[in-house]
Design brief:
By secondary structure, the chain is α/β, with parallel strands linked by helices. The chain has one domain: P-loop containing nucleotide triphosphate hydrolases (Rossmann fold), CATH 3.40.50. Helices cover 42% and strands 24% of the residues. It has 10 helices and 10 strands. A 6-stranded mixed β-sheet has the order 6-7-8-3-9-10, sandwiched between helices. It has a 4-stranded antiparallel β-sheet with strand order 2-1-4-5, covered by helices on one side. Helix 6 links the parallel strand 7 and strand 8.
C-alpha cells in the first residue's frame, strides 16, 4: 500500500531523512517512533503530500505522490498533531466542509458527520461553535474529519492528544477494527505503551535513519529488552542525554 525508496530530505545543510526505505502492506498498523528531531513529522508531511521537495520515491497504492498528488490525497486520511480548526464553525459545518473537499455527496457527508459526532459523545454539541470546545473535544472533531471520506490509508500523528481515558480507549479500539477491515494505519506517537498495544510492526528512526524495524516480539529478542520503552532508550539514548539528566538532578544538590 505504501512504498518508500531512498527517501531523503534536507532543510538547508541539515539532512533530516537519510535513505529511508519502507514497504507497508494493506491492513498493517505501523508504529513510527523516534526522538524529537528524528524525522518523524517530516516523513508524515511527505506521505500526506504536504512536502514535495525531497529526493527518492514515494508510492501509495502504486501511485507516485509527486505525479498524482490529488489522487493520492483522496486515499489518505490525515490527523495531524497540531491542527487549526475553524473555531467559528460548528462540528457539523466543519465536517460538511471537509466532505465537500473530498467530493462526498452532501447527504452522505451529513449522515456520517451526525453519526460520528454521536459516537464520539458530541451529538449534543453538533451545532455549537468550536471556539467553546476543550482540546479533547476538538481532537475528536479532527479525528472524525480524517475518517469522514473512508480513506484507505490513515496517518495519525499523536491522535490521542487531549483525549480523556474513554476517548483513548475508543480510538485504540477503532484503530484495531480499521486495520482488520483492511485499512493501512501509519501511527506516530511518543506514548510507548499505546504504540505497543496498537501496532503490528514498529519502525524506530533516529537522526533520520531507520534503526529498528519489526514486530515488537522480534525487537524484544533482538535487543534483549522487555518493553518498547527500554528498546527505544537503548537505541536512541546518548551519553549527552544521561549527562543532561544528571545536571538537572544536580540543581537540587
Amino acid at each position: 500500500m505504501i512504498r518508500i525508496r531512498n527517501l531523503n530530505k534536507s532543510y538547508g545543510r541539515h539532512r533530516v531523512l537519510k535513505d529511508i526505505s519502507i514497504d507497508i502492506e494493506p491492513g498493517q498498523v505501523i508504529g513510527y517512533i523516534g526522538p524529537n528531531g528524528a524525522g518523524k513529522s517530516t516523513t508524515v508531511k511527505i506521505l500526506a503530500g504536504m512536502l514535495g521537495d525531497f529526493t527518492g520515491e514515494v508510492f501509495v497504492k502504486g501511485m507516485d505522490i509527486r505525479k498524482e498528488p490529488v489522487a493520492v490525497k483522496a486515499l489518505i486520511g490525515f490527523v495531524p498533531e497540531l491542527a487549526e480548526l475553524y473555531d467559528v464553525l460548528t462540528p457539523y459545518e466543519f465536517l460538511m466542509l471537509m466532505g465537500a473537499l473530498y467530493n462526498l455527496p452532501e447527504d452522505v457527508a451529513s449522515e456520517r458527520a451526525v453519526r460520528m459526532m454521536d459516537a464520539f459523545g458530541l451529538g449534543g454539541d453538533l451545532n455549537q461553535r468550536m471556539d467553546t470546545f476543550s482540546k479533547g473535544m476538538r481532537q475528536k472533531v479532527l479525528i472524525a474529519s480524517g475518517l469522514l471520506h473512508n480513506p484507505e490509508v490513515l496517518i495519525l500523528d499523536e491522535p490521542l492528544s487531549g483525549l480523556d481515558a474513554n476517548g483513548v480507549i475508543l480510538v485504540k479500539e477503532l484503530i484495531g477494527r480499521l486495520a482488520k477491515g483492511g485499512k493501512t494505519i501509519f501511527y506516530c506517537s511518543h506514548m510507548m505503551d499505546v504504540v505497543e498495544k496498537v501496532s503490528d510492526r514498529i519502525i524506530l528512526i533516529d537522526q533520520g535513519e531507520v534503526v529498528a524495524d519489526g514486530r515488537l516480539e522480534e525487537l524484544r529478542q533482538m535487543q534483549n529488552k522487555s518493553s518498547l520503552e527500554d528498546i527505544f532508550a537503548g537505541l536512541t539514548a546518548t551519553d549527552s542525554t544521561r549527562e543532561a539528566c544528571q545536571k538537572l538532578l544536580g540543581v537540587f544538590d
